[in-house]
Amino acid sequence: MKKFHLVCSGITMALLVIFLPTELPAASTGTTHEFRIEQDWLTMRDGIRLSVTYYNPIPIADGEKFPVLLEMLPYRKDDFFRARDYSLYTYFVRRGYVMAKVDVRGTGSSEGRLPDREYSDDELEDAVEIIHYLSKRPWSNGRVGMWGISWSGFNALQVAMRRPSGLAAILVAHSTDDLYKDDVHYIDGALHIDLYALEIDCDNGMPASPDYIIDDAYFESRFETYPWILTYLKHQRDDDFWRSHSLRWNYDAIQVPVFMIGGLLDGYRDFVPRMLENSKVPMKALIGPWNHAWPDDGVPGPNFEWRHEAIRWWDHWLKDRDTGIMTEKRLALFIRDGHPPDAQLQTTPGQWRYEDWPIRRTKWRRFYPSSAGVLHEKVESSQIDRLKNNPATGIPLGYWWGEPTGDMREVEGSSLIYNSRILDKEIEIAGFPKVRLKTSVDAPLAHWVACLEDVQPDGQVSLVTGAVMNGSQRDSRLKPESLKPGEIYNLAFDLHFTTWTFHSGHRIRLKISNASFPMIWPTPNPVTMQLYVGTEATRMELPVVAPGKPDVPPFLPPEPREALADVQEVEGSASGVLENQQVIHDLINQTVCMKAEAEDKLHARDVEIRTISRTEYQTSELNPADSSFLGIREHQLRKGKRALRFKTTMDIRSDKMNFYVIFRRELLRDGQPDIVKEWKETIPRDLQ
Prior knowledge:
Blueprint: E1 2-8, E2 11-19, E3 35-43, E4 49-57, E5 66-73, H1 82-93, E6 98-103, H2 121-135, E7 140-149, H3 151-160, E8 167-173, H4 179-182, E9 186-187, E10 190-191, H5 195-203, H6 216-223, H7 228-233, H8 240-243, E11 258-263, H9 271-278, E12 283-288, H10 306-318, E13 331-336, E14 350-355, E15 362-369, E16 374-376, E17 383-388, E18 416-420, E19 427-431, E20 434-441, E21 447-455, E22 461-470, E23 489-494, E24 498-502, E25 507-513, E26 528-533, E27 539-545, E28 567-570, E29 579-586, E30 591-604, E31 607-620, E32 628-639, E33 642-654, E34 658-669, E35 675-684
Parallel strand pairs: 5-6, 5-7, 7-8, 8-11, 11-12, 12-13, 16-18
Antiparallel strand pairs: 1-2, 2-3, 3-4, 4-6, 9-10, 13-14, 15-16, 15-27, 17-26, 18-25, 19-24, 20-23, 20-26, 20-27, 21-22, 21-25, 28-30, 29-30, 30-31, 31-32, 32-33, 33-34, 34-35
């Protein structure tokens, strides 16, 4: 173990070099390089030092240089993400790539004050500076790729929009080009509060690893920083706050090649086909059956070794090697075979195939809701169907448009339901189903929730896809307006991207309601909806794909990931998974409460962290304005003789006019008084 100190190009570095054993999993192929891990500092333009970990391949030939792959996250690389990074990065470093992992300023091991939001200008400018620097290092071949999943996919897109010198290509998984509508704050333009909002604001308040020093600088730069949830609640409308960082409104901003990965059970899947249609740069895309995870271990499978495809991509753009990847069709798409509902689904039936996008064999097929709950393929007799909204409708849909779901029959009583005839031929769809509704309500604000479902021969109902329409945004997301009670509106919106095969003997179902609890915060007034059916103005359009003989991608099976010996973790809250869910119906007070909890234990070198998370949603069936979210997250940290507890409480309640938020951070130290920072704010509801 050695330490080095040097100054180059104005960036100060302190290196801790660790040489690692090179024993590989038996299934690994194409590996050539041993590697070392180096801890380092990058000094930014304002003097703030960012913590970086390098995975450096050891040269085989004299003068060998390597491309660099940069990932930048706030998720604490030296404790929470240490094992995760190792298991991902070793595949690439052994194939001749320098892997650079940076903690966002004010988070993890980096210095500086916590930024005021996700993907802040400071974060993006830091990345631009870092990319330029990495491209000039003596061991670099001058080309940098930025990559990542979720947050690090989001910022890869946004950094690419700034066109930094040295950036040659990006790879993004489960990301979006539309921060307002697709991210987790306003799903489909409607307010969404979930475990992640609690997690990130809790973790933002933790001190820097690996020493966890509690001093004045810590309190000023982290513990006392303004909670992000309060900032997001003050931006309830789509505006420049969201659009200035969203590629959807300026696809030409990106000039480098883009590799995209999406999941049919992930909430961020829509950006992949949108970018294929609208961006002119070289692209490759994969859309598989999994959730918010990498394709080698996402649930449900089938899984494959996506890193092999990534190496083909990086080798082409960063090493000038002809891997054949750019001669294939741009999109590898998994077509789901219709299957019964299963909330624990592990493997999805279906098939992979290469496609161009849009798929030229697509024909749009219309279905019209009509009398007696029938979904016809031509307009039948007109009538008005009425529905009194139950604000607790939607629990089986889950926390967002993702993850496997169970039987949708549980919400039949609080929705308008229209079933097709029994199919005599299978129907395959791929794309964005369209919904058009002629409708009115008796309230100034209402959401419409549409679900496309597959009714099995035994009566079970599988969710295929769905979406929410915030009624105030019916004409414009930028200029939302209240509804006029009783006025008839013609609403038009797309459901989220999907693939599915409806088999003969099944029925196609369209389900319409006005709530999706707890995914979407309930609108404040009781709502009775009128839906005008048996008219051209109320219909569903499905993107039906004609049979063809597309090529099948020759994907390799997943390889075992390399594990880091000095880290042990039990998956739980750190992976965003809530367990022990309870739904409590109070028949006397007519309220519905949904509770869940999770626990995670992490042992990383000399640190032990136990994390406990609890969430509780509640709404009133009589007065939906009276709704609430309570989240509690606590980290119990031990290092040597030190014991620290960091507790965050997020209490959000509403009435017809306002959101009332109490946000509280607590630091508990053995033998010392507790330290508390609390914010209490009243934030007006703005068409949410």
